[in-house]
Amino acid sequence: MIWNPENECMDRAAMRSLQFARLKNLVERVYTNVPFYRTKLDEAGVSPNDIKTLDDLAKLPFTTKDDLRVTYPYGLLAVPQAEIVEIHMSSGTTGTPVIDAYTQRDMDDWFEGMARTLSGAGGTRNDIVQNAYGYGLFTGGLGAHYGAQRIGATVIPVSSGNTEKQLMLMRDFKSTIITCTPSYALYMAEQAREMGIDPTSLGLRAGCFGAEPWSENMRKEIEKAWNIKAYDIYGLTEITGPGVAFECAEQYGMHVNEDFWYPEIIDPATGKVLPEGEKGELVITTITKEGTPLIRYRTRDITFIIKERCGCGRTTRRIHRLFGRTDDLLIIRGVNVFPSQIEHALMEIQHVEPNYLIIVDRSAQTHLDDAELHVEVNPEAFSDETKDMEQLRNKIEATMKSKLGIAIKVKLVEPKSIERSIGKAKRVIDKRQI
Amino acid sequence: MKIQQISIFLENAAGRLAEVTRVLKDGGINLRALMIADTADFGILRIIVDSVPKAMEILEKEKFTTKTTDVLAVTVPDSVGSLAGVLELFEKNEINIEYLYAALDKAGETAVIIFKVEDVEKGLAVVEKNGLSTTDHF
User: Fold this and answer.
1) Which tens digits make up the pLDDT trace of A244-293?
2) Contact (CB<8Å) A379/B63
3) Quick one: CA dihedral A272, A275, A281, A285, positive or negative?
4) Cα angle vertex A147, ends A141, A153, to 5°?
5) What are the sequence ranges of the domains in chain B?
6) What are the distances in angstroms from CA A283 to CA A32, A387, B31?
7) In sequence order, which residues have a C-beta less than 8 Å from that of residue A59 and are 6 or more positions away?
């Protein structure tokens, strides 16, 4: 089912002219209202008048996560604060968070993006959507919630975790669509079987899964475990949250809601725009965004734009399932963690060297990510008492939990035991077979 | 008198204990007593050696995480009830023992008990006042 055939199945030429009009308006707005962008454009020697076609977008400078860090919290606001109706946030590279501030119009675009997403998974007003994404500052929970309401479905706002309750609600309320991270979907199926419940008997028929990397193999596993259709969805806090791109019934590539969020693929090394079909870094311009607009935002996600038109009838372009990232971001249980955040957190603890190694694995039993952090003990921190050492370890674990937002097991190791290659330590071992 | 015990941090990995003993052997250090405190993730090896400065130099050179701690080495007769007597004395004088272990004594007719007490000076005073003998002869 196509939520908005007028826009989603628009003639390509009409789409391009709509995108151009919106882009031109965006560039004028940010140039006038956001000193940060005005300086950036001036420095690049471009003015809003230079935007004469959609392809002129390539003349504009990129916006990076670092720019968001520097302008935190309100530096990118393009409207008076009174126009902002909601703010979301995710952690950034160095622990400085990244925010997204929405006007009512921005909220409407977000609802629309998520309404299209759920419709892509076959969702209608007759569905019961069990939303097991976390609620709060994280965009996943509320994004799916708003989208489900927009299509008129019944929302069960259970949030993440509490698997027994999830299964009870599924059984009692007869949920038909589940929204959560793919690894949690597998974990719940496992738990259900352990409790003697056959997951396929619960009546789910579809799931919208995102917020962490997953694969076609995981899709097959989830679909088999629950006897459902599993759909890949894409979004990021900076742009709007979930709803940026979604899979349709064809389950090949995610349709980008490009009337709001315009995609380009660039060569991450040179910054040059690549032709359709070539793999590179996804760059998004929020052409309708009012609150915190982003011009050519570098997502660091690697994908390509699928050339062929989709069999579903939508004309919006599709991006392929993500291939990875151009930076060292780790996504652990759906939470973004940059190794540099770990380093910064360690530096706050006395007598602990910022020498660490993080090992991430995905349990074969639970399908959940496990992270173990090895920290080198500094001779000053070494105590003859095991209780002092355990206290130190607990303190590091508590600091990680509060700074990163996830539980990480800490193991104290001997100084200089973490392998160094040419003076630089290897910080991350990712053993996950996704 | 007080003596110095060397503590060594050992991560829970195969061969680490063997490595310490090998390094000490190569340096000609004689191990007179040892005790390991272990947890699921790591261990702390505590040793009494014949030459603390030499052992420390070797261990530091080999990048072990070490620390020296003052402990009491009390000599007791090698007979029934001698440890009980010392403990009773400590209890009466409110000397808080954190851990203890036994060491070899050169003479062979007495035993040496290594005590790590909360307040080493206070412990030492009690030991001396009550005529217990200590040793630094390892």
Assistant:
1) 999 999 999 999 999 999 999 999 999 999 999 999 999 999 999 999 99
2) no
3) positive
4) 105
5) 2-69, 70-132
6) 23, 50, 65
7) A44, A46, A50, A51
- Per-residue pLDDT of A351-370, as tens digits, reads 787 778 999 998 887 778 88
Please give the ipTM for the structure prediction. 0.78
Q: Tokens 């009337």 correspond to what residue?
A: A259
CB-nearest partner of A382 from B5, B39, B67: B67
Asked whether A426 and A391 are in contact (CB, 8 A), the reply is no
Question: Contact, A243 vs A116, CB < 8 A?
Answer: yes
> What type of residue is A243?
G
Residue B45: closest C-alpha in chain A: A384
Return the CATH number of B2-69, one of 3.30.2130.10, 3.20.20.70, 2.30.30.40, 3.30.1360.70. Answer: 3.30.2130.10
What's the burial of A320, exposed, middle or buried (CB within 10 Å: 0-12/13-18/19+)?
A: middle
Query: How far is it, in rounded angstroms, from Cα A110 to Cα A241?
Result: 8
Q: Which residues of A touch B37 (CB under 8 A)?
A: 385-386
- How remote is the C-alpha of A123 from its chain's centroid? 22
When the candidates are 3.30.70.260, 3.30.830.10, 3.40.50.1000, 3.40.190.10, the CATH number that belongs to B70-132 is: 3.30.70.260
Distance from the B133 Cα atom to the nearest Cα atom in chain A, whole angstroms: 25
Query: Does residue B14 belong to the interface with chain A, where contact is any CB pair within 8 Å?
Result: no
Question: Whole-angstrom Cα distance, residue A264 to residue A241?
Answer: 18
Report d(CA A168, CA A132) in Å as an integer.
Answer: 13
Alpha-carbon B92 to chain mean position: 23
Whether A384 sits inside 8 A of B65 (CB atoms) is no
Token output for A173: 């309320």
* CA-based nearest residue to B34, from B4, B73, B6, B71: B6
Closest CA–CA distance from residue B46 to any residue of chain A (Å): 8
Distance (Å, whole) CA A396 – CA B91: 36
Q: What is the DSSP letter of B79?
A: S
pTM here? Answer: 0.73
Q: For residues A144 and A165, give the distance between their C-alpha atoms in angstroms, rounded to a whole number.
A: 19
Considering only the C-alpha atoms of chain A, give the largest distance between any 2 of them, rounded to a whole number of Å. 74
Give me the torsion for CA of A273, A278, A283, A284, rounded to 10°.
Answer: 110
CB A105 within 8 A of CB A290: yes
Domains of chain A: 1-327 (3.40.50.12780), 332-430 (3.30.300.30)
What SS3 class is residue A139? helix
Closest CA to A115 of A125, A105, A106, A126: A125
Q: Do A79 and A112 meet the contact criterion of CB atoms below 8 Å apart?
A: no
pLDDT given for residue B106 in this prediction: 66
Distances (CA, A) of A131 to A204, A240, A406: 12, 18, 20
Q: Which phi and psi (to 5°) does residue A384 adopt?
A: -75, -15
Asked if B63's CB is within 8 angstroms of A415's CB, the reply is yes
**Eight-state DSSP code of residue A171:** H
Residue type, B95: I
Look up residue A26 and give its two tokens: 């965006």
CA A356 centroid distance within chain = 26
